[in-house]
Structure formats: C-alpha cells, structure tokens
Amino acid sequence: MLVLASLADGPKHGYAITQDVAVQVDVRLGPGTLYGAIGRLEERGLIEAMPAQQRRRPYRITAAGAQELAQAAARMRDVAEFGLSRLAAARTTA
Fold first, then answer.
1. For the chain, how many structural domains are there in total?
2. Exposed e or buried b for every residue in 44-58, given b needs 16+ CB within 10 A?
3. What is the per-residue pLDDT across 65-74, written as a single tens digit (0 to 9) for each?
C-alpha cells in the first residue's frame, strides 16, 4: 500500500519511492522489501515499469492499482474509525 500511495501522485524510481515513504509516514523501506513489493505489484498489474532513465527505472500506478489503493485505504479508514469509536466508548464508561 505504501508503494501504491507513493506512486499515486506520479511515476517514481525505487529510491524516490523510499524517500517519499520515509518523509510522508516515517517508514524506511529496505531494498529487499521495496523491490520485493514492486515485483509483486507488477505481477498483479497494479504498477508498471516505464522505460529506464539512465540507470533508474521509474514505475507508475495502473488504473487497477489506483482502484486497489482506494479500496485498501477505505478499509484502513474503517478499521481506524472502529478502533477510535471503541476507545471513545471505553473512556466514557471508565
């Protein structure tokens, strides 16, 4: 989901994805984690490689990837709202 979110605002190469994720959510993606995720996302048709630019290969999100990101983000929002509502209810009964 982090890779898809990073690519949602435009194509990026691997290093740019790791930097974007680090700045936005303070998560450090190691090369093995990043390129493993990129491979799986590519296999599922959620991202696609673009022509290499010098030694860097940028990736972009596909329409299917944008749809998957929207659905996953909505599920995460629902989970967060559920948890927050339970915490609020527990505070009022305590």
1. 1
2. eebbbeeeeeeeeeb
3. 999 999 999 9
Q: How far apart are CA 47 and CA 7, in angstroms?
A: 8
Q: Kindly report whether the global pTM for this prediction surpasses the value 0.85.
A: yes
Interacting residues of 4 by C-beta distance below 8 A, sequence separation 6+: 41, 46, 47, 61, 65, 66, 68, 69, 72
Domain holding 34, by residue range, is 2-93
Is 13 exposed, middle or buried, given 0-12, 13-18 or 19+ CB atoms closer than 10 A?
A: middle
> For the domain that residue 79 is a member of, what is the CATH number?
1.10.10.10
DSSP secondary structure letters along the chain: -HHHHHHTTS-B-HHHHHHHHHHHH-----HHHHHHHHHHHHHTTSEEE---BTTB--EEE-HHHHHHHHHHHHHHHHHHHHHHHHHHHHHHH-
